[in-house]
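From the pipeline queue, job 12 of 40. The input is one protein chain; the requested action is below.

Action: predict structure.
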Amino acid sequence: MGLFCSMNIEELYQAFKKSNGISIDSRKIDANQFFFAIKGENFDGNQYAVSALEKGASLAVIDQPKFYIDERTVLVENSLKTLQDLANHHRKQFKIPVIALTGSNGKTTTKELIAAVLSKKYKTVATKGNLNNHLGVPLTLLGIDKTTEVAIIEMGANHQGEIDLLCKITEPNYGLITNFGKAHLEGFGGEKGVIKGKSELYDFIIREKGLLFVNADDPIQMKKTKGTKRFLFSKKDENADLKISLHQKNPSLALSFGETKILSQLIGEYNFYNIATAVSIGKIFKVPNLDIAAAIEAYRPQNNRSQIIEKNSNRIILDAYNANPSSMKVALDNFSDLPSNQKVIILGDMFEVGSKSMIEHQKIADRVAEINPKTAILVGEYFYQALTDRITITKFKTLDQAKEYLKQNPIDSSEILIKGSRGMTMEKIVDVL
């Protein structure tokens, strides 16, 4: 094959079709896979090309000449860009519905609900976990095969232009934004920047004359999509394309649309619109109503996302996958509504909030004080600086300090909310409860 300094995407694609897929991790390579050498902040995948080939990779795509090995090496200008171009080329081969979604909160839960609903009728490919960035999106697209009938692509971003790039790679023909919240404020440059950045998905779908799924109860979404091809769902508006009603918040959400009832295993009113989105997409894709309901009722959240854990005498709501000011507030509001009078709140710092970090952490601390739980524990550099005069609120700089305190002061017979940003690893608190 030689040193393919100028190997074009079509040639690479023809070779890819004979492979067993793509890997960017030399430790997890399978026989006859392509290895793409990707650079990270603390590593250079080019250094692992030899290892990948030794473990059975059929091809290693590199972007540094000094790591050229033999005819199994393809040298390109930029490995990441080549991976993205290959994924886009692959996507173009399929005339299937591709649904893209983004938003500040609820993306992964919504994606999993949509996948559960559509899988009742179609062979689906959906983003695994939260592989929703410039690497995860192309890898998901490259998992589409000739049996795939619909693809669901989650898109995450923390800067302007990222959603636009992911849309150009994915070329979706259906799209939705879960919400606009206070997430990644630092990277987006404030709340207006969040709206502008997330709306890049709307802009792409509108240009492509695709269909948008829009929460009619969200004035920003309504304004952004006015005059477009859209499917509206609502809790309030009888004239929306789908009217969906909330009947019960606790212990889990119960909803209905038309004559069809849904008793979900999801907690928190913030999940109402995530479910409504999945129902809307099910309706457009002609999934029978009872199958839509069954799919949603069977869905159980995983990976620290609104998980319910019964441990000893406590009931724990573990929502520690991530946090921002918007998701933290709705989680606290929902927790406040629970009937229990034995409430415990354990929160970790929120990351990527930018210049308003201290203000936003103080607001959350104030909300905790309003709820007045039996006990509250705030963990992290920002929460430690928050002002509060409640003797029931204890603050720690580190998670280890909080864990040690809980060992000495055990909690029992309580309803416990645990939430914080991913980097805080608040799920480790469960070990000492």
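Job complete. The chain has three domains: 9-77, 94-298, 307-432.
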